[in-house]
Amino acid sequence: MSAEHEIVDAVLVGDGDAGRVVGQSLKALRCAAGLTQLEMAKRLGVGQAAISKIEQRGDVQISSLQRYVEALGASLRIDAAFPVHSNLGVRIRTETGEAVDDDDQYILPIFGDRGDALPAQRDVVISIKPNYSGKIFDGVKTIELRRRFPLSLAPGATAYIYSTSPEMALVGAIKIENVERLELCALWKKHGRSASIKKADFDEYFSGLEEGFALKLSTPRRFTRPLTLPELKERFGFKAPQSFLYAKPDLQKALRNEHTNISD
């Protein structure tokens, strides 16, 4: 395989190996770009010996590493990735209420701009009982209550409604204008009527908690053809959420492409 078609893989390193592996990776990137050490040195305004030293040892400052990468026409980004079920992952989910798929990782940016790496907004799938989803599409229910929900969700994000048993299908979409966390007494007083829920049901749903989340809904749109659970499983490996989950990219793309013309 020629150098310009090589792919540089990320690798795990042990103690004392990090510098060597970084140097090897930089060399592989340079070769993939079709540059010699001398050509790379000219781009950086240094001697060839300096490039050789970097690629052999790799123990350079981040600023030098950034210059090297940018000389190749790329940008440097350093992230810390860890499993969602690690101690830190559990803490983040507890504090933010963020839902993730089991195979996801949390990615924390350490260096560099991640603005182009993160989606502008993350669509979610919300499980709602059929009697409540019907009220949403009728315009009667404008607030959805949740025991937990990510406050970080971008305003205006789309929520796809999964209507639970006996319907068991994705039936439509709504916009989430904002997410609010309140103590239960304030939550009921401010949003109880708009949530179309009885006080006894409210108390039962939030039993054991001191606060809850209110999702302000707008622009309800019912799909002309619901996507049933068997179809969702076959096409997307979909699992019906107990509360909510982030829509996977393939499902999100299909919903946007196949349901652009949906009824009001």
TrEMBL record:
Coiled coil: none annotated. SUPFAM superfamilies: lambda repressor-like DNA-binding domains, PUA domain-like. Signal peptide: none annotated. Residues 26-81 form the HTH cro/C1-type domain. InterPro entries: Cro/C1-type_HTH, Lambda_DNA-bd_dom_sf, PUA-like_sf. GO terms for molecular function: DNA binding. This is Transcriptional regulator. It comes from Aquamicrobium defluvii.
